[in-house]
Specification:
This protein has two domains: about 5-105 and about 220-250, D-Maltodextrin-Binding Protein, domain 2 (3-Layer(aba) Sandwich); about 110-215, 3-Layer(aba) Sandwich (D-Maltodextrin-Binding Protein, domain 2), CATH 3.40.190.10. About 40% of the residues lie in helices and about 20% in strands. By secondary structure, the protein is α/β, with parallel strands linked by helices. It has eleven helices and ten strands. β1, α2 (about 40-55) and β2 form a beta-alpha-beta unit. The strands form two sheets. Strands 2-1-3-10-4 form a five-stranded mixed sheet. Strands 7-6-8-5-9 form a five-stranded mixed sheet, with helices on both faces.
Amino acid sequence: MFSRASRFCAAALVVFALLAAPARASADEVLVFAAASLKTALDRIAAEFGAASGHEVTVSYAGSSVLARQIQLGAPAHLFLSANREWMDVLEADGRIDPGTRVDLLGNSLVLIGGPNADPVETMGPGFDLMARLGGGRLAMALVDAVPAGIYGKAALEHFGLWAKVKDSVAQTDNVRAALALVASGAAPLGIVYASDAMAEGRVQVIGRFPAGSHPPIVYPAAAIVNGPAAALEFLAFLQGDAAQDVFLEQGFTLPGE
């Protein structure tokens, strides 16, 4: 694993090389396809990069599975930020991304959320009576067979022997932010989302945390789509620098290897 310092140095070298190139007559436009869980942090980072570079960054958010399929079908994305490695692997196998630009950008953790008055879970494990806590309501989760947050959540529930008991009470959504919204609005009493999502929504609270060993490691890879503009590589490098990573950390993400 690379340290934060080594990742920053690599990013800085890319930025230096790009800035040393002949000046462009006009700013470039960069279209980023990004996992929905990145929205709060990435909106801030894209604005900061645009102000500093003059480039225009547009971000399209959805579940990683939806975005990957759109790229497979020829959507004009320049960067892809996925919430798991598997969907990036699919695009790499299809020759859609430049493998030399691929980097494990971020990590995250998985949490159980409830409304402001929900009681905390003392122990997240096989003895936890999740059905009783739902009280006849639904457990909000992203699509458990396609969207990374849902895949991780299902794996964690299976790890503790809870999935078979609760699967018929799951309300599946197209992405993790939609699951977050169900709990925030009171439509579902509980939900499984990333820690960063919980931090982005003041109407929910974390009532339990899933141990890292209960699900596959949560990794966000990023890569440039083939034949994109140079500005896409600049933005990818910016994402690995201290300014951007401070925003990610502030929003509840982690860095690989830390």
